[in-house]
Design a protein that fits this description.
Strand order of the largest sheet: 2-1-3-4-5
Strand content: 15-25%
Distance between the termini: 27 Å
Largest sheet: 5 strands, mixed
CATH superfamily: Cytidine Deaminase, domain 2
CATH architecture: 3-Layer(aba) Sandwich
Order of helices and strands: HEEHEHEEH
CATH class: Alpha Beta
Helix content: 25-40%
Number of strands: 5
Length: 133
Amino acid sequence: MTTISDKELLDKAKQVRKLAHAPYSDYRVGAAILDTDGNVHIGCNVENASYPEGNCAETSAIAAMVAAGGRRIATIAVVGEPVASGNCTPCGGCRQRIHEFSDADTRIILLQADGGVAEYSDAELLPASFSLL
C-alpha cells in the first residue's frame, strides 16, 4: 500500500494542473486522489467549446480511479490557479461525484490562495446529500 503525505498529494495535483486544457476560462485545476487501496490517480480540467461537455479535474481523477479499479476515495486534493477570491472548492456536480465514492473518513483537501491548506469532509461540502446506494 502506498503512503503519501498531504503535501505530496497536493504536489501531484499542482503538477497535473499544468496539463489542463482551459482555452476558454484560462483557469486550470488539478486533482489527485489517494484511494483506499493506496493508489494515486490524477486528473485535470478539460474544457470544450460546448461548455457543459467539459470535464472538471475532480471528475477526471475519479474516472482515472475507476478505470484503474479503485472504488473509494481516502483523500482527494484539489488545486486551482491562485486567485485572490479564495479556495478552489469543488463545484456542485463534483461534490456529488466525490460523494458517490466517499465515506465518513474521506478527506477533501484544498490548496488555499494564501498557500495554506483547507480540509473538509464529504458531509461538510455536501450536507443533506442525495444517494441511491
